[in-house]
């Protein structure tokens, strides 16, 4: 029985090692346009569209899979107007330096994005992003750092 328990436990561990969690974002009709925008913003060397599933009998995309930097997978679904995106869920980008923060901030705001507070913004597709430095936790670990961040829109480190 102990041997079977170990085998079952090992099998479960192996399954978990192969498991992958991805974020799926629901769009009305702009999934492929958003995917192309994100790949162009992050750069083809760091991001790519890995697959596109077309609607049956149509050239329009139904599902678009994107790989973003850090081997992060994102699924974009053209599900129609039933649901809309909300800032209650956001994608967080941990940037290496201020230049990277500036590049992504300006790019994500292009053509109709909206700034919010503390490094958050909503892009032209309605996706909420938080653009932060990698060491944000360290920077806001004291009252002065937290106060400074609370007064910013784009984080300036």
Any overview of this molecule?
This protein has helices at residues 2-18, 31-42, 98-109, 136-139, 143-150; strands spanning 23-27, 48-54, 61-68, 72-78, 90-95, 114-115, 120-122, 128-133. The chain is elongated. The protein is an alpha/beta fold.
Which terms summarize this structure?
alpha/beta, 157 residues, 5 helices, single chain, disordered N terminus, 4-stranded mixed β-sheet
SSE run: HEHEEEEHEEEHH
Number of helical elements: 5
Rounded mean pLDDT score: 90
Q: How is the main sheet built?
A: 4 strands, mixed
Unreliable sequence segments: 1-7
Strand order of the largest sheet: 1-4-3-2
Shape: elongated
Q: What's the Cα radius of gyration?
A: 19 Å
Distance between the termini: 58 Å
Approximately how much beta-strand content do the residues carry?
Answer: 25-35%
**In terms of structural class, how would the helical and strand content be classed?**
alpha/beta
Estimate percent helicity.
25-40%
Question: Count of DSSP E strands?
Answer: 8
């Amino acid at each position: 029985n102990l041997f079977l328990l170990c085998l079952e436990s090992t099998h479960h561990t192996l399954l978990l090692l192969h498991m992958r969690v991805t974020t799926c974002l629901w769009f009305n009709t702009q999934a492929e346009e958003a995917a192309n925008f994100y790949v162009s913003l992050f750069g083809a060397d760091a991001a790519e569209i890995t697959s596109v599933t077309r609607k049956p009998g149509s050239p329009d995309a139904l599902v678009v899979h994107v790989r973003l930097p850090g081997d992060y997978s994102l699924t974009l679904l053209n599900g129609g107007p039933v649901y809309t995106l909300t800032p209650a869920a956001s994608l967080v980008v941990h940037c290496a330096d201020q230049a990277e923060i500036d590049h992504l901030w300006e790019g994500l705001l292009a053509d109709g994005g909206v700034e919010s507070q503390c490094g958050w913004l909503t892009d032209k597709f309605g996706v909420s992003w938080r653009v932060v430095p990698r060491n944000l936790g360290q920077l806001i670990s004291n009252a002065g750092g937290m106060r400074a961040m609370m007064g910013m829109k784009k984080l300036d480190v």
